[in-house]
Design goal:
Layout (H helix, E strand, L loop, with lengths): L1 H7 L6 H8 L3 H9 L6 E2 L5 E2 L2 H15 L4 H21 L8 H14 L19
Antiparallel strand pairs: 1-2
The chain binds a DNA duplex through helix 3.
GO molecular function: DNA binding; DNA-binding transcription factor activity
Keywords: DNA-binding, Repressor, Transcription, Transcription regulation
InterPro entries: DNA-bd_dom_put_sf, MerR-type_HTH_dom, MerR_fam
Length: about 130
DNA sequence: TTTCTGACA
DNA sequence: TGTCAGTA
């Protein structure tokens, strides 16, 4: 099914289209790119061109934001994904890699482990207040 | 018209 | 994040 993956990674949307698709503002989309959460391609005119994958990523990011996770937290999640995915793929070529559900589960525990109060630590990734 | 970057609130 | 400026 690599034909499908190929299409999903074809950059065909302008930021205007992505805005409608994701309900995000151009400002937010550009900011997420700055944070290395998405990597849209650029066309001849330096315009961002997004793929279906980018849109998916954006929708995912939107969910995390809605859940109260800040940029630092989301960045961690994405770093985590980048490292864990290839790792499990190498481990066993036949067995399916982590399912999205597995990732969710792992991310959840990861999330909980960094959600506690850390009074003296100003680098808190999650705002504790969101739990009240 | 649409999008881009940079900057300020 | 919103918004404004000056471009391409």
């Amino acid at each position: 099914m690599r034909e499908k993956e190929l299409r999903r990674s074809m950059a065909v949307f302008t930021i205007g289209t992505v805005m409608k698709l994701t309900d995000l503002t151009a400002r937010q989309i550009r900011y997420y790119e700055e944070q290395d959460l998405i990597h849209p391609e650029r066309n001849e005119g330096n315009r961002r061109m997004f793929s279906l994958n980018d849109v998916d990523a954006l929708l995912e990011i939107k969910d995390y934001i809605a859940e109260g996770i800040n940029m630092a937290g989301i960045k961690r999640i994405y770093e985590f994904k980048k490292v864990e995915k290839p790792l499990t793929n190498n481990k066993q070529k036949n067995n399916p890699a982590l399912t999205d559900d597995d990732v969710r589960r792992i991310l959840h525990s990861e999330f909980l482990s960094i959600s506690g109060y850390n009074p003296g630590n100003k680098s808190n990734l999650i705002d504790p207040n969101r739990f009240f």
